[in-house]
Structures are given as structure tokens and as C-alpha cells.
Design a protein that fits this description.
With about 140 residues, the protein is an all-beta fold. Helix content is about 0%, strand content about 55%.
Length: about 140
């Protein structure tokens, strides 16, 4: 688990730390505080973990869930925000990277009251295996 990528990009938060995707069809992160959400500079990077990450069947998808300050209320969920092609991703190979959108939150009721975010990866359980990492970085 790096604190900084080879290109000098600083890791802000670890979302998934070498989690196994076997035996489930999705993984959801813990709550992530996003005090800099409205700067538009937050990016998520998903990559292969300590063992090859095999995603079976197209596509695996990523959902982004936005929460209020109390973590008790979901303000908005963007389902299938990102598609990830089925493939085998070796250690450190990037599955996908994407910015956490914030401009569209202005169109959502209470979109200006987001304090926490969760990231969820959805995939086909049968045939999927291995580990993955995910990081929140500043761009």
C-alpha cells in the first residue's frame, strides 16, 4: 500500500487495502470523509492487489454513494458510474481511474451537504477472484 505512486501522485486515503473479491459480487468501502469534494480534484484509482485480480464477465461497475454529515442519509447514488472491462489485472495494474463528480451535485437536492462518500465495485461472482486496491488521490 503506497503513500505515493511512482509518478509522484500523493495518496490521500486508502479505499480498499488488498481486499479479496472472491465469494461476493460486490465490495463497498467504508465512509470516506471528502472535505475537498467541491474542489473537483479528487480521483479514485483502482488497481490489482497482491494477487492477480480477475474480473469475469463484462462489465464490472462502480457506484458512488454520497452521504450527509451524520452518515445516516444517502443524498445521492450514481449507479454504474464507471464500467471496468473483464480481464486479469496483475499487481499494480490499473483497473480504472475516475474523478469523483461534484458539479452534478448542484442539481441534486441537498447536493451541497455531502460530507462522506462510499465507493462500491460490482462484479460477477462466478469466475472472479484475487485482490484489489483502491486509493483516493488529489489531482
Amino acid at each position: 500500500m503506497p503513500n505515493i505512486f511512482n509518478d509522484g501522485t500523493q495518496v490521500d486515503q486508502i479505499i480498499f487495502d488488498d481486499i479479496s473479491i472472491a465469494g461476493a459480487s460486490s465490495k463497498t468501502s467504508d465512509f470516506m470523509a471528502v472535505p475537498a469534494l467541491y474542489t473537483g480534484r479528487l480521483e479514485v484509482v483502482l488497481m490489482g492487489g497482491s494477487t492477480d485480480c480477475v474480473l469475469a464477465t463484462n462489465p464490472a461497475t462502480v457506484d458512488i454513494m454520497y452521504y450527509d454529515k451524520t452518515k445516516s442519509s444517502t443524498i445521492h447514488t450514481w449507479s454504474n458510474y464507471v464500467n471496468i472491462p473483464a480481464s486479469t489485472y496483475s499487481k499494480g495494474k490499473i483497473l480504472t481511474e475516475f474523478h469523483i463528480p461534484y458539479r452534478k451535485l448542484k442539481e441534486v437536492a441537498n447536493g451541497d451537504k455531502v460530507f462522506y462518500v462510499k465507493i462500491k465495485i460490482n462484479y460477477t461472482q462466478t469466475g472472479s477472484s484475487g485482490n484489489l486496491n483502491a486509493y483516493l488521490v488529489w489531482k
